Every structure is written in C-alpha cells, then in structure tokens.
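Lab meeting, action items carried over

1. Structure of the two-component assembly. Owner: GW. Status: complete.
Input record:
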Amino acid sequence: MEATKKEHELIVSVSPHVKSEETTSRIMWTVSLALLPAFLSGVYFFGLKALFITALCVVSAVVFEHFYLKLVNKKSVVGDGSGFLTGLLLGMNLPASLWSFSPFTVHVPIIATFVAVVITKQLFGGLGYNVFNPALIGRAFALISWPRAMTIWMTPTASFLTMDAKTTATPLGILKEAGMSELIKVFGDKVSLYEHLLTGNRAGSIGETSAIALLIGGLFLLYKKYITWHIPVSFLGTAALIAWVFGQKGALFAGDPLIHLFSGGMMLGALFMATDYVTSPSVRKAQLIFGAGCGALTMLIRLKGGFPEGVMFAILIMNCFAPLLDRGFRSKVFGAVKTVKEIKK
Amino acid sequence: MGLATFKGGIHPPDKKILSASSPITATKPPKIIVIPLSQHAGAPCKPVVSIGQEVKKGEMVGEPGGFVSAPVHSSVSGKVIAIAEFQNAMGRMVNSVVIENDLKEEWTALKDSPDYMNLPAAELKEKIKAAGIVGLGGAAFPTSVKLSPPKEKPIDVVIINGAECEPYLTADYRLMIEKPKDIIEGLKILMKILGVSKGFVGIENNKPDAVRKMQEAAKGASGIEVLALEVKYPQGAEKMLIRAVAGREVPPRGLPMDVGAVVQNVGTALSIFEAARYGKPLIERVVTVTGEGIKEPKNLMARVGTKISELIEECGGFRDDVAKVVAGGPMMGFALSSLDVPVTKGTSGVLVLPEEGVMHAEDYGPCIRCGRCIDVCAMGLMPSMLSILSEKGMYEEAKEYNLFDCFECGSCAFVCPSKRPIVQLVRLAKSMVKP
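Predicted assembly:
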C-alpha cells in the first residue's frame, strides 16, 4: 500500500475509536476453561461414561445450533463458544449413568441438548434473549421425562475404565430419606463426609461433585472479573444461613450449613449456573436479591420439598425475575441521589 | 487514602508516551487558512470582512451572532480570497472565511496590560469575550458565557481541568509542563472575575511531573490547590471532575453552576491569561498529532484554520497501513472523512490509527447482559438497555432509561464484549425523540 492513504479509504465511524480486547467468545471459552477442573474430577470419579456423556452434549449442542441457524438463514455463531459452553454445562449436570445401552438411555442427553439449545435458547431469540438458563431447562426436561434414568447415580470408583459401575444414593438423597445421622454413618464420621464432599468422591451429576474443583474454577472467574461476587455470595450465604437455622429437624440454629453448601449442585449452581449473564440481572444490587432468592428457594425445596435437591428449580424460578429485578433496581443517575443543598451543607 | 475520583469509569491504555516528550513546536506558516464562522457551541458568527480585503494577524473576521457565541479572528496576515461553505471536522458544511497568507506576520494592534490583575472584573471579562475564547477541551463553549452565571446561581469555586483523560492526547500535559505560571495566572483571573476565593487544578496522576510543576507554580497563590486525581476515563468530564475535586454532584441535566462551580480547561486558562495580559485573541492552539499511524508524533502550536493534512505532513506523514484519522481523542473524537478540513478552536488532537485495532461497525453481536457497561457508566445509566431499546426502535422507552443524561463518553462501548456501537445507538435514539 502506498504511504499516502487515499481519502476515500478512510474509515468513518462513531466514537469511541478504541475498544477493549474483551470479546463474547473469549468470555465463553474462559468460562469453559474454568469448568475444566470440575469436569476432570467428574471423569476421574465416574470414568469414561462421564467423558462420553459430556462429549455427547457438547457435540450435539454445537451441531444443533449450527444447523438450526442454517435452517433459519442466520449467520452461524458456533465459534463464539456459547453453544459449546451450554453443552458442557448440561453434560456436567447429568448423571454419568446415562451412558447405558441396556436399558438404552443414550438418547436422553441428546434430546436434553436439543431442548436446551434449540428450544430454550434459539427459539427465544438466540444468545442474549433467552429467559431461562438453557442447560438447566435441558436438565429439567430430562428429569421430568426420564425420572428413573436421571436418578441412577454411579458409585465413584476412581477407576477410569469402569463401565459397569455400582449405583448408590447421593448424599442429599440419603439426607432426605434417612436423615443426618444416617448420612454421617454412611461416610464413617463427619470429617470423612466433608472430605468426600470437598474432593468430589461421592455420587452426583458429573460436574457437581467436587466442591474444591468448582471453587478453583469460580475463583479463577472472579479473579478474571468474568463474574462478580454478588450472586455466588448471596446465593451461598442465604443457603448457609437457612441450613444453619432450619437444617436440623426439631431444633433451630443447629443445622450444618457446610454439608448443604458442598453437596448437590450448590457450588456448580452458585458459581456457574446462576451467574450466567443472560439469565441473571445485570445490575449488581439486583444480583444480590437474585442470589438470595436462589439460595432461599434451593433450601426450601431441599428441606420441605419432594425432591432431595433444589438448585435447578431455584435458579429457573429466579430466572423469571431477572428482568423485573433489573428494572426495580435500575442504577441511579449521577447527581440524582444527593440534592444540591445536601452537598453544600 | 486513594486519589480523588468518581464512581465507574474505565482504564484504556493511555498511549501518551507516543507524544508526551515532544515539546510544543510551531507549525510552518500555512499558505492558506480556512476559518469557519462557527467553531463553538452557539450562534454562528457574521463575517465582518469582504473578499479582497487585507487583514492583519489577530484581526476579527467574524463577529458573534448572539449572546452564546464568540468572535473569530484571522491567524495570519493576508488577503481574504473567499467566504463560502467548507467542510469542517464533523463533516458539516460551515460558512468560512478563507485567507491567503502574505507571510508578513503583521499583527493587528493589541492592547498590552501589564497591570491586568488590577483591572475591574467586567473589563477582564470583556477582554476574554473579545478574544473569542471558548472551551479548548473539545466542546468549545464560549467562555464569557460561563463567566456570566445568573444571580441565583452563585459560584464559589473555579476548577482548571488538567485531567486530559482521553488516551493519546498530550496537549494539556505539555502546556502544564511548559507554561504552568501562565495557567495559574489564568486561574487567578477567572477567580477574580467570578469573585471566588477557591481555585483548583485537577490533574490525572499519570502526569506526576505536571502535578509537580503546577504545584510549584501555584506556590504562594492564596486559595489555589493543585490535586492529583486517579487515572480513570472520563475523569476530565466536567461533572466527574467536579465530583472528584469538590465532592459535589451536578444534578441530572444540570450545569456545573448548579453546584457553584465553573470548570475551564488548562488551554483555556492559558488563553485567558494571554488575552488579559497581551490582548491576544484565540488564533492558535496546541494540537497533539499522534497515533500508531503517524511517523513522528508531535505537539504542534497550530493556527486556527490550518488544514489537518498540513499537520500530518508536518509530522512526517502516514505510515503504511492507516485506516482512520480522528479529530480529537480516541474516546470522543470525530472520525474524519476528509483531511482537507481546518483546525478549529476545539481541535485538541489529530489521531492516526492503523488498520489493526480499528473496529468495523458491522461486526457486533447481541447484548449478552454481562453488565460491564452498567458498572463503568460514570452517569449511572444502563447503556445495555439504551442500546437494546434503540436497536428495537423503542425510543420513548429509552427516554425512561435516562437517555438524555448520557454525554457519550464511550466507556460502555469500550468495555462491551459484543462490540456493540452503543454510542451510535444512543445518538440515534436522541435524534428520534424530544428531550
């Protein structure tokens, strides 16, 4: 190109003329990366089945999104990583036992992914416009449609190639059916129970079991400023408070909040699902209410509901309120808070 | 305790190193100058010269067309060869006086006042008005109007804006390094005119040497304080500066005078001093010519009316891959469609950007509601909602989201991961509804 640029080649556009390096796809891929420790832990405890189920969801998500967008003549956005992330999250929210050919349940993750990506996300307008968290709707659909298959939990084996694993109950399942003393008995003692919950050596969905791995990923996202503390802290704080106050049958202020925080999908939900940008409020104050609502509903379902676990329904219910919360806690215009008189005092 | 600042804001790479060490140098005398009769906010000037007329340097060529207006003067001596419409930096056609330079540099008679501090306030204000001084930070609001607040709005503080928060620009920085005493004198004149005993100079802390120089220059001056401010865009926006320096918040849609403050840019303060001391009209200003696309970034003392293309030549011309030329800074400046436009009183910089890093307007995605724009909005708005509502044509609803409180600093568009043209959408909405 010659040194003197011709004038008609100058780009004219509205300010600002510089932009940050952050992009949507970088956010999606970074969140996926932050899920890696928890995913690896799932594969470590539940073996190849966990890997296959998650891979199936990821591949289906990308394929469904691509072909749907082609079908409706929209630009394919597979590279932005949001389809990949939805598939990954959905996979991590499913039990590894779904990888089974007799009875045949391999179609369950595929259909759940279809519901997540095509119905929950694309039919509502695509990235940015879906009301509900796609991965959670996918999981809720599967749970309601195939309640039996969705609640077969493998015993963590730490033997990678195991394909015919024994099944068992999740800690929350035991808690619901048999109570706290039985739960502690199953794991030996309280310390051992905590240990199993923190490392992920317990029954549950592929990516939800290791509290430590999830915390590592969550702290990484906080450090990178991809999420803020508002939703995780209000979510976990409210749940812990309720667990402490009402967690013990027959006595107030005697519950064990740690068992509730580290079991079920609490960590995965509070750090990765409730913090989904699109389906949570964007105003920080509104996020505090949103998180508190998620925490309260989770504990309500866990303590009083029919299901042993309530994270999924809690987040989905709060998703409905996200736009309303944003409206209600709309940020205050500069200068509107203090009047001139107050300042001059 | 941290440095004074405001809530929100962003930290774009400041890139000031490109031109910060280059002292202010005068440009070669331009052969032809084009003086737009409207280079300020307010009514355009009426020409007071005719084609063929000889004018001297500093002679008025356009008289104010109303109360909110400022006269324009010739920046060369020579002959008026045309009065016609020419394109300005914003791309609009503006009636302009074209003067051919006779290179004699003959000044019109200026009134020297060594004793300027003892002149009555009204006379000082008259000098500022006659010199055609407007805000040099970019908005070009006539200074004399700012100095005539209505009686019910008493002013008790004058703030000199040395924040220069726009990345790349170093014009104000160089002035504070090279002429700190004159700027402080300008502040004293402003304080005298407004009958104010408290004056501040606010400077972003990425210019510690400027803070030091200004503090030295202000030593012994009663009531004048030089403050280092946190480095954060848009620290130099009037409302944010008043918040940081005086702790007062201008009410929504209000003016600085609503909280008793008057803000002037450092370049304006210098012009005020020169007008009061030497009677010199505003015919030149410092323009930072910079960016990765220019060969030798410089701070030039450019005469009003000089073509941008001449400034670019003066700085060694373009590098190979120039994509965009901006009048002003990268955050709020105007992209030029032609380089054949004149420097005006409001031109703080010429920024030359290479292809790499220039965003193409069509490459943007949907809002993912990440909330980054809400966090950084210094005005406490929800740019995400404004952009979505504007995109959908829901302009009235955008108004409910305080559309007209946006001053288009561009922080939201800077941080947006979907690269949405938020400022453009806001301007579109503003043009579609009444405030």
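2. GW to write a short summary for the group page. Key points so far: Chain A touches chain B through 49 residues (CB under 8 Å). Chain A has one domain: 24-328.
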